[in-house]
Amino acid sequence: MSRVQRSRALRGLCTLAAAGALVIVLFPVYAVVVGFFESTQTLFSGTYYWLPHAPTLDNYRTVVDAQSANVLTSLIVGVGTALLSLVVAVPAAYALSKYRLRLTVVLVSSLLVCQIVPSIVLATSLFVVFHWTHLLNSYPGLIIADGTYAIPFAILVLRAFFFSLPNEVMQAARVDGASEWQTFRRIVVPLARSAVITVAVFAFLNGWGDFIFALTVLNGSGIQPITLGIYTYLGNYSTDWGAVMASAAFAMVPAGVLLVVAQRYIATGLTAGSVKG
Amino acid sequence: MKLSMRKWHRGMATLAATTCAVVGLSQVASSAANTITLTEEDYFNTPGQISALAAYNRQFEAAHPGVTIKRQYVPFANLDTKLLTQAAGQDLPNLMAVDNPFVPTMISTGLTVALSDLKGFSTKGYYPAVIKEGFFNGKYYSYPVAGANSIALIYNIPMLRAAHVSPPRTWAQLVSAAKALTTKQHYGIALTCEPAEDTTWQWEPFFWSNGGSFAKISGAPGVQALSLWKQLVSDGSASKACLNWSQTPAASSQFMAGKAAMMVNGPWNFPTLNLQHWYYGKQFGIVPVPVRVPGQHVVVPLGGEDWMISNTGGNAAEQLAFEYIQGMQTPAKELQLAKLFGYLPAKISVAQTYLKQAGPEWKVYIDQTLYAHPRTLGLGVKYPKVSQAVWTAIQAALSGSQTVKGALATAQRQIDSVLKS
Question: What would the CATH number be for the domain defined by B36-144+305-342?
Fold first, then answer.
């Protein structure tokens, strides 16, 4: 076999493997879409139908009124988490990569440690703290809680990216008379665009998909994200799987659209730090 | 460089201050004069339950001007954790509908009110097992929510008729009936063996009726009861997929889809059954859970929730919360709530009236309540851990990873250490 042939065979194998992985990863999404049109009885009948068997829009009707407000809540929380993460993480990551601070090592390692703590442990302590500070039952409370995961992650990713920015760029700006803040705002942030968008998307997904913090921090305030909303249909005495599937399908749409739009930046953002570093 | 660093710091400080201000604004003062809000948490999600509570809340608010009831739904799987978190923050809701196995744990937080200390509390007329769910150290801490529930054997009449089988009363009959009822299209019985509380709960009637006690789970009653389930699975009369099945909706859907001829389940299935044109006496029948030898009493566990009141809300709120749950204990309200919840009334006399009004499908459930056990009897806060040891053993035995005796011996060791602690 010639080298060309071999590499062609290898490429074919890789494509096959990738397609296989894709099928596995996308199957739940497919199942949700099929479930959207199925009745709960059909879902539990013991036979899996690849295409909706006796399609019905009952599930859609069940959830459309009940869950629309929750989707909006999730959007607010997701966007809020993304904004909070950027506001904190972009300057923090810049400072941690470009200034020599005595505490850098301690700070960076504590950011890593932050992510080890299971969220249920954190949720319990946050509940107590939020109770003192009257942050329970509010958007800011939930957004800050979701930020506890999004922010450390964002700082670590951005810091890796900022290392790849040549110091000469900043020095040139300073020579031209820019202040430290101006350099940061006019030069550094625009250069870091794809990295910033990447961490913003991840922070958004963090807030969007959060369940534990929402469950802990919110009490009958009327604020209810879609992740909690889905659980309306999962009970001790009755479970409406069709409605669960329909809510899940609802919840996928905004996040899916966002990911497709941001996809280009995410690819560059994730690799930028490593390649140029 | 130094100067600009200072500027930088100042910028960050402003940012922090702004964040704090925004956060501060979000707190809204909600205490107006002469009004009081009672917060309530539960996991009720069936249409009947939701409408029953909404109607009662409206009625209570109308009778108590200035009072608002704020109901908060919490998913079933998360209410216990949530209540403990709230207890840690000393911020429990005024009213809680607690799943009865969890009641002792809530009492142990020291944050719930002993109802028997309040004026007007009475245990008169209640089924002993129901009212004892909230009994601790000589005091009662709870009243039942809309009554209680339990499980019995529900069977598919046409399938039994086609197989010329009569509803089983003993284990031997159950084994042979399940075998005769297994065809290519359906299994004889749908068991529930997912790794969760409902598996232990499903097994309890077999175990308890046979004279078993969790403190001696590896004894003969336990081995016999688990061997029965094991045999149903190894005969092929029950699907091995039950290792992933919950009682409702997994096992119940198998039954309603005609994939199983029998199931052990509760009266909360009646609305769903009727909705699909399954009617008692025509499509489905009910007998008590079979016993090993004729003459044994059927001892079922009791399900259902109990109202508890937290002491973190102040005296006025406590008193009002007590009035709220007391108002549900009148015979008329009890009947109405039990019907909408799909529960059995918690008082013996009310249950007799209920039987006349609600229909014969309730008879088995109502008759067996007198001999029922609260699950936490003698175990208190330790019940959840004991239950976990039990469902783990059931899973191990049915999946074949351990023998029946081996699985129960492991469970015995775990239960011993739980009971000693």
Answer: 3.40.190.10
